[in-house]
Amino acid sequence: MSWYSPILDVAANVVLRTGIVFALYLLYAGHNAPGGGFIAGLVAGACLVLDHIALRSREGRGSLHRVTPRPLLGWGLAIAVGVGVAGWAWGGGFFDQAVVSVTLPVLGTMKLTSALGFDIGVFAVVVGLVAALLDSLGSAWDEDLR
Amino acid sequence: MILVFVVHAVVALVCLIGGERLGRRVLLVGAIAPASIAFAFWQLATSDADALTATVSWLPALGLELDFRFDGFSVLMAGLIGVVGVLVFLYSWSYFAERTGLARFAAILVVFAGSMFGIVTADNLLLLVVFWELTSITSYLLIGFQDDSAIARASALQALLVTTIGGLAMLAGVVLLGSAAGTYSLSGVLAAPPSGTASGVGLALVLVGAVTKSAQVPFHFWLPGAMAAPTPVSTYLHSATMVKAGIYVVARFAPVFAVLVAWWRPTIVLMGLATMLLGGWRALAQSDLKLLLAHGTVSQLGFMMVLVGWGTPEMTYAGMAMLVAHGLFKGALFMIAGAVEHHAHTRDLRRLSGVARELPWALWMSVVAVAAMAGVPPFLGYATKEFALGGLVADTPWQVTATVVVGSMLTVAYGLRFLWGTFATKPGVAPVPEQHGHRSTVGLLIPVAVLTVGSVIGGVVVGLPDALVAAAARSVDALSSGFQLALWHGFGPPVVLSVVALLGGWLLWKWPLPVLRRFTSRTPEATRVYGDSLIGLNRAADRVVSTMQSGSLPVYLSVIVTVAVVAPGVLMVRHWRSLPEIAFAESPLQMVAVLVVVAAAVAVTLVRRRLAAVLCLGAIGYGVAVLFIIQGAPDLALTQLLVETLALAFFVMVLSRLPLRFEVFPDAGGQAIRVVVASVVGLATMAFALWAASERTAPSLAAEFIARAEPEGGGRNVVNVILTDFRALDTLGEITVLVVAALGALALIRAPMPTEDPDPSEVGT
Hints:
The complex is a heterodimer of chains A (146) and B (765).
Chain A: H1 6-29, H2 37-59, H3 69-89, E1 99-104, E2 108-113, H4 114-145
Antiparallel strand pairs in A: 1-2
Helix pairs in contact in A: 1-2, 2-4, 3-4
Chain B: H1 2-22, H2 26-35, H3 37-45, E1 52-59, E2 64-70, H4 72-95, H5 102-121, H6 125-143, H7 150-181, H8 186-191, H9 197-213, H10 222-225, H11 231-240, H12 244-260, H13 264-285, H14 289-310, H15 313-344, H16 355-358, H17 360-374, H18 380-395, H19 398-423, H20 442-460, H21 463-476, H22 493-510, H23 513-520, H24 526-548, H25 553-574, H26 588-606, H27 610-630, H28 634-655, H29 668-694, H30 702-713, H31 718-726, H32 728-750
Antiparallel strand pairs in B: 1-2
Helix pairs in contact in B: 1-2, 1-5, 2-4, 2-5, 3-4, 4-5, 4-11, 4-15, 4-20, 4-21, 5-6, 6-7, 7-9, 9-12, 11-15, 12-14, 12-15, 13-14, 13-19, 13-23, 14-15, 14-19, 15-17, 15-18, 15-20, 15-21, 17-19, 17-20, 18-20, 18-22, 19-22, 25-29, 26-27, 27-28, 30-31, 31-32
């Protein structure tokens, strides 16, 4: 392809992995520091877009092409609703919070809240949205580039 | 009781997820759900109370609590839903060949059964409406199960439109009634019934809902139309459960409101009687077995409406008994019709011949069911009909009783027509060929046998159903104790009337039927009215759309922004107040960011390359993000930056399809108008922002949110705590919108480009 850029390719390889890790960090840290499901989803979504632009030319499709929108959207919404319903299960109302502290070998004590579950749902939905847009807008773009 | 709903939800999910792997067995899994209703029985049976209650908090601020109340009447209805439900699942197991979509079918049927259970146990009017609409939606999906058939789709849509319009009326009525009574609790409203115009209108609207659901005149036409559904669905929804929801609501309200509200009795009785006669009349003219039964059901629903709507204790008692009896015999008849179709591959009684020899068991069970329907001793149908006639004679004017007797004659006549049409060997019609290598219909007849045996036992040992009916009537009307169903009430008017009905029905069937048939086929059809109004609605919508949507984006924008400016602008001018002190800028950095934003905004309007315009838009977004950072809002800034970046990327992708430059530029005059509109909107928006900020009357919530974030939300990032905890429901709504938008984007790309105008014949179906 005429527009293949080795610099973008190499840079994307580095940025992508860091970006996904950063998104996961934002997802976890979001409850106490800037971040959260929405922002983390956007970061991961930006990675998808970069992947699409940089790697599409080389292999015909990006390495993250396995990210399919429909299951992400479905599971994301299901998880978010599930957290709400679970509020009843631990004896409160819809969307009541629960906080659990776990001690893990390497990471030390982690405080897990049910809001993290909700954030994961939001995260999945946002990533799914970006993937869906890439599917629809991006594929048209690819055709035009050919 | 709550557990019953959980079981339904879980079973529905299991059916959906594991369904295609289970094949036909998914229907047996589905049967677990209605069987779980037995659990609620057990709960009530082992407690001493008259009624079980359960409450789950939902939206207390709106008066929407998940209040459930399981009393005698609920038991009766739940019995129908549960028993017929299990039988219908077993019946479907034999009815359907191995095919795809069965999992979906089972799941929807389970959800339907759960919603139906919800209707009869909900003690909150709003909750009742929620379940009510759920049954409408699930029945729509079930009627349209054979979605490759245009008739099935059209009749599903018809049923949906009629019942949801009724449901919407009911929602409005419930709100009026609830606000007049000061409570949305069903038992509360009935204990202290409100009076006044608002509650009267509310009551009428609730009745509209009940009437559409129970297929009363003039909304009766959807029920025969819904016969495009598979037979198990017809059996369950259209004889035993959903169509009785309206009867259920009327029965709950009647003992209280029949006395209080002057128009209640005349309205309901006239409508019920009209439905009874029209249904019976039209049933006589049908040559399709299922349509015959469907019109018969309409007729019986009219009868039940008269009984439960009258509101005196004895009539209520009779209505409850009819609910049970009708569920037994009509369920059986529908299932027999399905079995016969299965065997003979036709439901047309002009083509059926000699079935009696092939399916002797079906014949005998049909005889029992028809006899029960016609009111022949010693079946349950007879006992209830005798009781109902007794009540009618005692409580109502003679005209009502006379009309009911005429309606019963029609019942007898179409019952005989069903028997003869299904099983007789007709001269001149070739007997149905024996089906070799065909799956046996025995499996289809076993559930029928259960219902038929129920009709017999219920009649002979009349004390069994009587206990159920007595409890049901008592929970609706405390005065209705002391009545008893009996096989022999002694010699009196009811017996005479029964004999008259039977003889008259037999004569009607035997003799003038061909003459009558010619008339019945000429009576105007409500379906046509429905069709015409639908076409008219589509035309009106087309006209509105073609005037409102000219297709010009500048026109749309100007209309929208003008309205947005003028409406609040007028208010602002009328309540004019001088501006408070405003700090111009808090830091020099702010000035820089704002200058960038303004410069980029001006540039957007001047550049002629699309890419440049998009980049300028991006610059605006980044500038705003910088402002957020300066104000100390990292979350907002981060979001703004990321959204801006993604939007830029997608813009670029779309731009590849568009010309490089903007081709059409407005002339000078058009440009002037745009400048004026844009400036006015900009200035007005700025003014709104300034005044709105200075007009705050309530204390800011910010401090409270910050104080409560850590202890209650478990997080130090207040923005995130608000998103995921304090306002989690809002967030849930937002991500739902995102999902819908994403699915829309996916659907758009897959949709083929329209090549020509859509076929006009498909519009409006």
